[in-house]
Amino acid sequence: MRLLLPALLMSLPLVAAAQSGGADAAPTDDNPLLQEWTGPYGGVPAFDRMDLDDLEPALDRAMADHLAEIDQIAQDPAPPTFENTIVAMERAGREIDRVFTYYGIWSSNLSSPEFREIQGRLAPRLAAYSTEITQNEDLFDRVRAVHDARETLDLRPDQQRLVELVYDGFARNGAGLDGEAKERYAAIDQRLAELYTQFGNNVLADEEGYVTYLDADQLSGLPESFVAAAAAAAEERGRGGEYAVTNTRSSMDPFLTYSDERDLRETVWRTYYDRGDNADEHDNNALIAEILALRDERVGLLGYDDYASWRLEDRMAKTPERAMDLLLAVWPAAVARVEEEVADMQAVADREGADIEIEPWDYRYYAEKVRQDRYALDSDEVKQYLQLDKLTDALHYVAGELFGYEFTPVPEESVPVFHPDVSVYEVTDRETGEHIGLWYLDPFARQGKRSGAWATTYRSHTTVHGPETVLASNNSNFVQGAPGEPVLISWDDAETLFHEFGHALHFLASNVDYPTLNGGVRDYTEFQSQLLERWLLTDPVVETYLVNVETGEPMPDDLVEKIRRAATFNQGFATTEYLASSLVDLRLHTLDDPSDVDPDAFERETLAELGMPSELVMRHRTPHFGHVFSGEGYSAGYYGYLWADVLTSDAAEAFAEAPGGFYDAGVAARLVEHLFAVRNAVDPDEAYRAFRGRDADIAPLMRDRGFPVPDGD
Fold it and tell me: CATH number, domain at 46?
């Protein structure tokens, strides 16, 4: 439900927000951001009419209108019922949903200094608005009355779960507080909203402000595709004739993998991993300390010992202890593998007479040499078979085989887009022709777009206003090459493309009736997307879509086998850098007193205590850990990727064991029915057991990563 706006607002990628309604802003009655969506496919966002001047007045109007709707529900003289309270709230807020769609585009895809200035102004007002809903005593009284009577109301299971989720959304966000405690809770929420905005903007400022420029004599070892992309990036920044290594993972990672220039590798490495930690106006350390203290104080008002206990209570892990146990069960094997990987890399460096000790900026470079030496697997050779347009076709093929979906490009003039890079596809049922929704694809990096890859919806499937179809979007940061040239991506990026498409399929497959049930449990929702990565190396995808950019021939069997054999290669690095971030996240959020924490010192001391290898660092160092500190989506919850990966490995074995393998119709049908279509209408534990017939086991995860399986598994 939209009542869970505190969670929604905190989880938005707050790297930008809204602009002041200046003299040229549209009057609210004519504001295009407020208007109902029109056009084909059940109506689509008016991305072609977006004007930053309209955003602040639109949000102000939408917040006021939604609060009026909420007040009308709260003051209803009729006794509270499921329909006049819970369903009424599910129906409210359509206007602000539309405005938040545009807000999210500016926030994530089209940020600018002007937008970030507005965001800072709007953040406390948005927090106050969400707090006014969750602390509406009359509304909570009605919700509580329905919740207390839920066993007697003859509700369907999904309606029972809806009531519980709505009630928890109030109770876990301060609705039961009184007097000074309630006022303090609201004040904390407002301040946190400001801090999250500032944190995200600081990281974005460092990503935009720190670019490493190269001359032609500093390109040794770099693939032609990277050189072309770096030249285009420099040209875009007014530095024609030079080559730009931008301060994003998609640029940093290949540079560190291939560049022969060790000093430059160190420069690029430090620039990337020091984001938010440069002792300047964009330094995030003081913000982190304040965020931690405020989070701890806020959950203390609710009676919790620490923030992690509050955060994990309604997730699959339930407690921070269970999450920590999982991380620590994998940690020793991961660290031991790092030691082996470093020894292999050091041997290569010694053999080449490099006269160095492996440092973090050497890890990717020498790992690539070991990969080529041990598996004769050249990442750049693999890349020649990974064309973005062909991989997009592969996504559609897999969705067709598993879900029965057909993807058809929509003519450019039919649906507005917010940037020329965006393409749109109609999704239909390939047997019946029924319209399922639209899929937007925004694949390329650009200034003002947040780094990484993500999926989102502009409209989710519901029936409370009549059937509404899905508008889903995938967003990436691939580096666009020279005009007309195919875009080649790395194997890791191809897996990420499949991963994020898994989220989109989760959106598109929804068959739930109520908006709230389109939400998810964070340590579960990554499972569906991680599982979809397994289809990248299936035979039909390899034979049809992984084709050489020059010859059009499919990836040869020997190269496929090398990739399969190398699947566990460098798992020490990948697992340890991830686990380190997860462990620091949990430990920060289980501190007895975080009020005077020094984030840099805490990070160093925690990693030393854990025995973190010196040759690598956390995947996301604390000062730029946007998952955790630019909102609350993954706060105390970064462990969730591993929790979900346990489910992923276990579910993948269900397909591997089936007669039809990864395209087995029976297993695919159970997958869609129990793990995708129900979204959050069914408890995740129950949903997984319905699919697998039992709980998940950790042993498949350890096997997948090439780690020893713990005794008893």
Answer: 1.10.1370.40
Q: Evaluate whether residue 569 is within a structural domain.
A: no
The label of the residue with tokens 């889903």 reads 472
Average pLDDT over all residues of the chain: 93
Quote the number of domains for the chain: 3
For residue 712, what pLDDT is reported? Answer: 59
Clarify whether residues 117 and 35 are in a common domain.
yes
Q: Tell whether 463 is covered by a domain.
A: yes
pLDDT tens by residue, 561-615? 999 988 899 999 999 999 999 999 999 999 999 988 999 999 999 999 999 999 9
351, 449 in Cβ contact below 8 A? no
Q: pLDDT of 462-511, one tens digit each? A: 999 999 999 999 999 998 877 888 999 999 999 999 999 999 999 999 99
Judge whether 298 lies within some domain: no
What is the largest distance, in Å, between two alpha-carbon atoms of the chain?
A: 83
The residue segments making up the domain with residue 128 are 2-176
What is the spatial distance between Cα 687 and Cα 506, in angstroms, rounded to a whole number?
Answer: 14
Which are the contacts of 76, defined by CB distance < 8 A and separation ≥ 6?
Answer: 84, 85, 88, 142
The DSSP bridge partners found for residue 441 are 423, 474
Distance CA 607, CA 361 (A): 18
Catalytic option among 56, 90, 194, 500: 500
Q: What's residue 713's pLDDT?
A: 55
- Contact criterion met (CB below 8 Å) for 306 and 590: yes
239 shares a domain with 169? no
- 244 in any annotated domain: yes
The yes-or-no answer on residue 500 being catalytic is yes
Give the mean model confidence (pLDDT) for residues 626-650. 94
Nearest to 34 by CA among 94, 95, 97: 95
Final residue in a domain of this structure, among 256, 273, 290: 273
Last residue of a domain, one of 553, 588, 622: 553
